[in-house]
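Hey, I was hoping to borrow your eyes for a little while. No rush at all, and the record is pasted right below.
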Amino acid sequence: MPLGAEEIATELKTWSVDHIGSIEARKPSEEFNGTMMQFFHWYYPSDGSLWKFLSEETENLAKVGFSALWLPPAYKGLGGANDVGYGVYDLFDLGEFDQKGTVRTKYGTKSEYVNAVKLLKEKGIQTYIDVVLNHRMGADFEEEFEATPYHPQNRNHSLGETRKIRAWTGFQFPGRRDQYSTMKWNWQHFDSVDYNSLDPNFKAIWKMKGKDFEGKVDLESGNFDYLMGCDLDMNHPEVIQELIHWGKWSLDLLGADGFRLDALKHINGDFFNTWLDALEAYAKKDLYCVGEYWTYDLPTLAWYIGNAGGRMDLFDAPLHLNFHKASRSGGNFDMRTIFDNTLMKEFPLFAVTIVENHDTQPLQALESPVETWFKPLAYAMILLRSQGYPCIFFADYYGAQYVDKGKDGNQYEINIPSLRSKLDLLMSARQFYAHGPQYDYIDHFNCIGWTRLGSPSHPHSLAVLLSDGAEGRKWMETGKPNQRYRDLMGECPDAIQTNEHGWAEFVCRGGSVSVWIEEGIPI
């Protein structure tokens, strides 16, 4: 794991100099301006309708300009038809077998899933499969074996001697009957569990005898290898072989373009290097991968990027945190620092930029919502700048209503309004205007802006101005002399004209964003 921030930064910069050319060759050119959507949220109804809804929406998503969708975990989970997909039971059951009290998953059936992915491919939209390779849950039977208890908040501190325990570690998948895989899981395929039915009141992380907590994981709680359920032993050859087999099977079935990888901070940092190398060799192409290493510590993210050798992007959790803080600061956040300590600023080639996701939405485990008024500003920052690969959240696009308990035990009714009309405008601006050189004007406590000067294939320019406080005004250069501009967002009704040098004083209303495009150019 990383030592100090300076050492990490030095090592990564040295590594980047040697490797950045080959990595850039694997990435789409900025002319492409790809945009991803996370096509689900935690509280999407458990009615089996998502895959059908996706099939109905595919044409509209393509027209708006989405180039890729991150789809939710499609396999059978512990919670059956109610499982979001992170309580992994059987990776090979995509809503095909009667297991965990249901055939379909929360999102529908296997045939509906495969059909939806096929339609996406026909429209030129890439598919990224969400997969959890960290743990298994909902075992079919208990087993007895020896294990050592460790303190849940300090996995370096033993709570006693090795002893016999009983835990739910046996997986036979009786409903699937060996279709697609004959692998049966037992306690030897895991390295730790958190429950002993022989002593259920004793709270501990139980490490199997002869096993070790994995290295190259996050150092929270001393060693954050264990997260939940039955933690996979990523050093076991049968585990490695089976996970590679599942990846190949998934690629054959769906023709997917890549993966969203869950819980990276809990898995040995070297495992995915082996896994992705095997899958790319099998597919004979580059596979796009974005990983969830949820930490706000930039040096740790930098270490993971270097350790992965450029194989994957990471979600920019620090940028999300800045958005969350700014949205709740009532105009008292220094917008000059909004990009500080983020992947978007320091390592943009590896940054998937987000405003929200399923974990940060209200009432979830990492709850840190961005207030509604600020979201158009935040989305403008990830969609219209040159750095990062932006990802729009399903609930922000379509809206969401749900009821659940908060951390205080009280019941709350949540309403997330749809920003679809504004996001469609920002998506259009991204496709047609957000190209070429970028000039930044990040020089005011509340009001910041930038311009994009266009490129040979996208010659029209763009000016963006936003303020989290009062009305803003800023002189910015567009490269287009004597050109009239209009506010695409409709916030400011009057046109603005640049002078003979291509400069103009652009404006925005308080607490809003204005996107100034060349007047008379259709979008």
Notes: Residues 141-232 form a domain with the Elongation Factor Tu (Ef-tu); domain 3 fold (CATH 2.40.30.140). The chain is about 25% helix and 25% strand.
